[in-house]
Automatic annotation (TrEMBL):
It comes from the Bacteria. Keywords: Cell outer membrane, Membrane, Receptor, Signal, TonB box. Residues 208-256 are annotated as: Disordered. This is TonB-dependent receptor. Residues 243-254 have a biased composition (Basic and acidic residues). Residues 57-160 form the TonB-dependent receptor plug domain. It comes from Sphingobium indicum BiD32. Its main location: membrane.
């Protein structure tokens, strides 16, 4: 089926390439009138005639910058999809989804996510932000900031990903985008967009809107064993417990709007930015457990069906951010003040109904239902003040302050149903939801009803110099954080608690040009990672750590890290770049679970664990990247690109040495673009693979492996204002395979006395899309 679709796409592309070139060949970029100087014309975005490269930045910091021309031809749907093509970014998402980026393979909370240079709140307790909620059509560029600077907040142990949205001074004119996506289950989803930028009054305005249909149909299978098999040959005979078949479909729509208005009046500049993203999403799972590795017959005792489960989650999310910045150049230097407000809201209602047929002889099937209702509201108000003073022609001094008031409200409530009944069941024509009744009043789970207020007051100063071949920066940032936790599920005596902590974060970076084509880039910085929200509440969560309990710790402090990056860049031709970078991080005060010595709720052999700042870890690796045309071998219209990151780390915990949880050993991608200027056409491909990842916590271990990802595009440009592309992604039927080792407690984990051993696989089919853009 895949082959047939690509045969049709290939025939279509051949017809497009063979079309008469005289009427359809686009003008070169230099031929398009630049009525507003450096402002990009809409036609330049719609018609990309040439090869896109990674940008070569001139700031002292180690920054990799990628414009839309680097991504656009593969039509990424989201910011997360775009980041799959840049160095050192991995994901631990479901197949064909790219949500929480893991820079250098570290957990998402170690990466700072910025939109237009400013932080935004998200749903996750680890403070990470899901980039699959930002449509790629809103993006002007993506920056990987490998090291930290005093001018930004220090929450960047792994580094920073900055998503720059389009603004009025980057676009003149408008364009529309329209198309559709075809999925493996024959579902079709729309993709529509509109962007316009131009002069309005004394300034320039940009407006954008986007509708993106989202769909992800997956099939999962799990094989579970009662103990650890001694070898693969014993799986299906000696230790088999049950098999689970699951269909998992994620379906939804993203609606987004963004805008900016900027007035540049010489010494005075004013800019207003805003974006809004709304997500309506439904996740539907249907699971069947069988007592046989292959059979799919009806309920026991006559058949093999142990249980029938239906799980539906309805999710409504809203991201909103607005900020204004005023900059004034005057006799004492340049002063800027920025005021911003950002908000994230999530309402999630999840129901799960299960019929259990694995009952004693003569007993009726058991019916269970559960409702989990989650509401998160996270708001941030911030003010940033900067002043810059030139000390001489080559050195300037900058200082300033930052204030942030964060308020996060979380509510997690549950209700349950139970019952038995006598009925004939056909899992192929009936659904457990048919037996559902209304739930009683929901109640908050332990630790699930809380408010966290976080106030930050920062001050920073830095010196920046430019002496021709050498650009450098050195600075110091001081961050003071005060946290107040209110948990409404615990006793009043401990319900409200406060803590505060300080951090001094020095940093320095440089770029030294050896020649016009070669330079060395280096940096050193101290950074931090703030505690996860779910670790701060003073509630006891029963059986959260295997059969043991988890007690939150309101006095947790941040993890801190010293790190350095040292790299080399070589310019190739007019736009190509080859780069190599080595990095190292030494992490202190790592948050690890410690045994309080108190007996857990399940009695003897179980304990109460609490997170504490007691660990140390190290992270290191080497990163290569390349993007260039092949003009040096006589092929100027052939572009190649690729990157390879080799990643490693070490933590010592109560079980011994391991990597940081779920850090892939490597990630690479490479591809090419072949442009046909006379025919107004192009095609290309990209291939991506990330290495296996291992994670270990108390009572559970998981190894995750991903299959490779192949994407291909074919493009036809018609005149100066119209482009149509056909894109195929996940062409290798991406698979995710996980191996779980599960234990009742730490002692059993040390002795390798398994509670359950599970092999889980997940697979999704290819996705095809046709996208057209028209500039006006």
């Amino acid at each position: 089926m895949v082959a047939n679709k690509w045969l049709m796409l290939g025939c279509a592309s051949l017809a497009l390439v063979s079309a008469p070139a005289g009427a359809q060949a686009p003008a070169a970029a230099d031929d398009i009138a630049k009525t507003d100087g450096p402002i990009t014309q809409a036609a330049d975005i719609v018609v990309i005639a040439g090869i896109g490269y990674r940008d070569r930045t001139d700031t002292p910091e180690p920054v990799l910058k990628y414009g839309t021309e680097y991504f656009q031809r593969f039509e990424p749907l989201t910011a997360g999809d775009a980041l799959k093509r840049v160095p050192s970014v991995t994901f631990l998402s479901d197949v064909i989804e790219s949500d929480a980026p893991r820079l250098r393979g570290l957990p998402p909370g170690y990466t700072q996510i910025l939109i237009n240079g400013e932080r935004v709140p998200g749903a996750s307790a680890d403070r990470s932000f899901f980039l699959d909620r930002i449509p790629a059509e809103l993006i002007s560029s993506v920056e990987i900031v490998r090291s930290s600077s005093a001018r930004r907040t220090g929450d960047a142990v792994a580094g920073t990903l900055n998503i720059n949205l389009r603004d009025g001074y980057e676009l003149n004119g408008g364009y529309v985008r329209a198309g559709g996506l075809y999925y493996d289950d024959k579902e079709i989803e729309p993709s529509l967009g509109l962007v316009w930028g131009g002069q309005v009054g004394p300034g320039r305005l940009l407006l954008g809107a986007n509708l993106q249909g989202r769909h992800n149909p997956k099939q999962k299978k799990s094989l579970r064993y009662g103990d650890s098999p001694e070898n693969n040959a014993d799986y299906a005979t000696d230790d088999f417990d049950n098999r689970e078949d699951q269909s998992d479909t994620r379906d939804g729509k993203d609606y987004s709007f963004n805008g900016s208005y900027e007035i540049d009046a010489g010494d005075t500049n004013f800019k207003l930015n805003g974006f809004y993203v709304k997500t309506d999403r439904t996740e539907t799972e249907r699971s069947f457990e069988y007592d046989d590795p292959t059979a799919t017959t009806g309920p026991v005792p006559i058949g093999n069906l142990l249980s029938d489960n239906a799980n539906v989650a309805k999710i409504d999310q809203e991201n909103f951010s607005v900020d204004g910045k005023l900059t004034q150049q005057w006799a004492a230097g340049k002063t800027s003040v920025r005021v911003g407000y950002a908000q994230f809201i999530e309402d999630r209602n999840e129901t799960e109904y299960e019929i259990g047929f694995d009952v004693d002889e003569g007993d009726e099937p058991e019916f269970e239902g559960a409702l989990t209702s989650t509401a998160i509201k996270d708001r941030e108000f911030s003010v940033k003040l900067e002043h810059e003073v030139p000390l001489n022609d080559s050195v300037k001094f900058m200082f300033g302050g930052f204030y942030q008031d964060k308020n996060r409200r979380t509510g997690i409530f549950e209700a349950e149903q139970e019952g038995t009944g006598s009925f004939v069941w056909d899992q192929f024509s009936q659904n457990p939801t048919d037996l559902a009744t209304a739930f009683d009043k929901v109640e908050a789970i332990d630790g699930g009803d809380n408010r966290i207020k976080e106030k930050r007051r920062d001050a920073f100063a830095l010196v920046e110099g430019d002496s021709g071949n050498l650009k450098w920066e050195a600075g110091l940032r001081y961050e003071h954080t005060k946290v107040r936790i209110s948990d409404f599920t615990v006793a009043a005596a401990i319900a409200d608690q406060e803590s505060d902590y300080d951090a001094f974060l020095p940093s320095a970076s440089f770029k030294y040009s050896l020649t016009d084509h070669d330079r060395i880039i280096g940096s050193v910085a101290r950074t931090l990672r703030r505690p996860e929200f779910n670790y701060l509440t003073p509630a006891v969560l029963e059986e959260e750590v295997g059969d043991s309990d988890l007690l939150g710790n309101p006095q947790l402090g941040p993890e801190t890290a010293w790190g350095f990056d040292i790299g080399y860049e070589h310019r190739m031709g007019s736009g190509g770049i080859f780069g190599v970078n080595v990095f190292y991080r030494d992490v202190k005060d790592l948050i690890e679970l410690t045994n309080t010595g108190e007996e857990g709720s399940e009695g003897e052999g179980t304990f109460v664990y609490q997170p504490m700042n007691v660990g140390d870890g190290k992270v290191w690796g080497v990163e290569f990247d390349l993007s260039t045309d092949l003009g040096f071998v006589g092929l100027p219209n052939t572009g190649i690109f690729g990157n390879l990151s080799l990643l490693d780390s070490k933590i010592t915990d109560v079980l011994g040495k391991r990597r940081f949880n779920d850090q892939s050993k490597y990630v690479y991608n490479f591809g090419f673009i072949q442009d046909f200027p006379q025919a107004g056409a192009a095609f290309g491909a990209t291939y991506r693979k990330q290495g296996s990842a291992y994670g270990r916590v108390i009572a559970e271990e998981v190894t995750t492996r991903y299959g490779a990802d192949l994407e291909i595009f074919v493009e036809k440009r018609i005149g100066k204002t119209f482009t149509i592309r056909a894109v195929g992604s996940n062409l290798l039927n991406g698979a995710k395979r996980e191996t779980f080792n599960k234990f009742d407690n730490l002692a059993d984990q040390i002795d390798r006395d398994f509670d359950e051993y599970e092999l889980e696989s997940e697979k999704a089919g290819p996705v095809f899309q046709i996208m057209a853009r028209y500039a006006f």
